[in-house]
Design a protein that fits this description.
The chain has one domain: P-loop containing nucleotide triphosphate hydrolases (Rossmann fold, 3-Layer(aba) Sandwich). Helix content is 40%, strand content 22%. The chain is built from six helices and seven strands. The protein has a seven-stranded mixed sheet with strand order 3-2-4-5-1-6-7, sandwiched between helices. Strand 6 and strand 7 form a beta hairpin. The radius of gyration is 16 Å and the shape is globular.
Length: 187
């Protein structure tokens, strides 16, 4: 990874961070450094000009090595079909996938359970990107609060299934799993 010295052996990595924290760039750098064929699974849907700009920005950041697979709803199917021993699949991002599931009024628990199975059963390396949304202002609408709560639950589920969890803040990755051993002595 450019500018970072992380030496971890993982098959499943979750990268968390706030908006514009550098989490997507960190995920891309990890995938590119793996030496495996990089596959980008995009969950975004271009509903407006702002989202079209964001999608274009992410596409421009990837070079010709990358293949892109767009899947806003059936993420588990995309993970199963795109992973292999010679590939690394980067899913960007779980936050938009969750939004898509909730707005489509799908059975959220069922969708998460299917995703759990796909992540655990992946045939290759997987990098998942997700927003850490619970550290800001409490949303003022019931849907916003429900989304924030479900995002927190989804992040916890994925963190439990992944070998490595990285929190990115201001472009700086911090490994939070495997957790450092805390050896605190109180005197």
């Amino acid at each position: 990874m450019a500018g970072h010295n992380l030496a971890l052996s993982s098959r499943r990595v979750l990268i968390l961070g706030g908006a514009r924290s550098g989490k997507s760039r960190t995920a891309q750098e990890l995938a590119e450094a793996s030496g495996l064929e990089p596959i980008y699974v995009a969950t975004a849907q271009a509903w407006d000009d702002e989202m079209r700009e964001r999608i274009a920005h992410h596409r421009a950041a990837r070079d010709g090595r990358w293949r892109t697979h767009e899947e806003p709803i059936h993420l588990a199917d995309a993970i199963r079909s795109q992973t292999s021993a010679s590939r690394i699949v980067l899913v960007d991002c779980l936050t938009l996938w969750l939004s898509n599931i909730m707005l489509a009024e799908r059975d959220l628990e069922s969708a998460m359970a299917v995703l759990d199975k796909a992540v655990v059963g992946t045939a290759g390396s997987l990098v998942l990107v997700s927003n850490e949304v619970g550290q800001g202002i409490v949303p003022d609408t019931p849907l916003g609060r429900a989304f924030r709560d479900e995002q927190g639950r989804l992040n916890q589920r994925m963190a439990a299934l992944c070998d490595t969890v990285i929190l990115v803040a201001a472009g700086c990755p911090l490994v939070i799993k495997p957790a450092p051993v805390l050896n605190v002595t109180f005197s």
